[in-house]
Design a protein that fits this description.
The chain has 296 residues and is an alpha/beta fold. It has a single domain, classed as Rossmann fold (3-Layer(aba) Sandwich). The chain has 15 helices and six strands. The strands form two sheets. It has a four-stranded parallel sheet, with helices on both faces. Helix 12 crosses helix 13. The radius of gyration is 18 Å and the shape is globular. The structure holds adenosine-3'-5'-diphosphate. The site of adenosine-3'-5'-diphosphate (A3P) has 20 residues, from helix 3, helix 8 and helix 14.
Length: 296
């Protein structure tokens, strides 16, 4: 890494009114022109909603529960992240995706209006995972603290205000979860919830397999449940992002695999902040059929 320029905390730049990391905005035309293929599978989430977890589940399903096949490369290499443009010498997910043989599995955090149109044109299968706003906000705050490529989060109160206003990378959580919820009426989208995955991972793994046209024996489902448990993914170098150097992901500040629970927001939110979020959910999602659980 000696030749690398020092990592600087980035600014946000809007694309069609949605705040993006500056490097994403700078590469916008290329990203927008991305050519999806009909047999691509896209994993899409708001950041910190359980992306890595669903990625490893999908990877295990694709390898019929064989952990050795998953262990051949870190998760971010197996499933390129198309809307991230890290500094050199790190590869761009878009470059990796373009040379990847089909069938590809790709990762994105893009909200519906910013997804490259070829994904819709090709009617690609998409798996979306949503997580309740409060836990999602806590997780995103700690991720900003440890990831030196993200904007400065400020203190918790400041971050929370920005989260609520949608003034953070990949934009408003509310617009994101709602946009994808509505898109699933028109496209092949499996919409999952982090809380459901915690409650009954085997059930949710079967849903994913069925969506991919596979029926897995119980024994394989159980292997996948075990392999993708938080405690196991936390110590697995192929899933815990320990391959990213510490001057980018400073895991002494906060680990990538931090807590992995439902309800950790209670350790962070004041009563007033909790009420503020409940009101915002009611106001911005109340007329949709979208319901989140903030505890199990
Ligand atoms: P916390 O910060 O609340 O612990 P993403 O992969 O989208 O960046 O999301 C990261 C969040 O998902 C972190 O949440 C992380 O701990 C949690 N996570 C990762 N793997 C998990 C697993 N196997 N089970 C439960 N949560 C998991």
């Amino acid at each position: 890494w000696e030749d690398m320029e020092p990592i600087k905390r980035t600014e946000l730049v809007e694309v069609d009114g949605i705040p993006c990391l500056k490097d994403t905005a700078d590469n916008w035309q290329r990203l927008w022109a991305f050519k999806a293929r009909p047999d691509d599978l896209l994993i899409c989430t708001y950041p910190k909603a359980g992306t890595t977890w669903i990625q490893e589940i999908v990877s295990m399903i694709q390898h019929r529960g064989d952990p050795q096949k998953c262990d051949q490369a870190p998760i971010h290499q197996r499933i390129p992240f198309i809307d991230l443009f890290p500094p050199k010498p790190f590869p761009h997910g878009l470059d990796e995706a373009e040379v990847m043989p089909s069938p590809r599995t790709l990762k994105s955090h893009l909200p519906v209006p910013l997804l490259p149109p070829s994904f819709w044109e090709q009617n690609c299968k998409i798996i979306y995972v949503a997580r309740n706003a409060k836990d999602n906000a806590v997780s995103y705050f700690h991720f900003h603290r440890m990831n030196k490529g993200m904007p400065e989060p400020g203190n918790w109160d400041e971050f929370l205000e920005n989260f609520l206003m949608g003034k953070i990378a990949w934009g408003s959580w509310f617009d994101h979860v709602r946009g994808w919820w509505e898109a699933k009426e028109r496209y092949q989208i499996l919409y999952l919830f982090y809380e459901d995955m915690k409650e009954d991972p085997a059930r949710e793994i079967r849903k994913v397999a069925q969506f991919l046209g596979l029926q897995l024996p119980d024994q394989v489902v159980n292997q996948i449940v075990q392999h993708t448990m938080f405690e196991n993914m936390k110590v697995n170098p192929m899933t815990n992002y320990s391959s990213i150097p510490s001057f980018i992901f400073d895991q002494t500040v906060s680990t990538f695999m931090r807590k992995g629970t439902v309800g950790d927001w209670k350790e962070h939110f004041t009563a007033a902040q909790s009420e503020w979020f409940d009101d915002a959910c009611l106001r911005l999602l109340g007329d949709s059929s979208l319901v989140f659980r903030t505890e199990l």
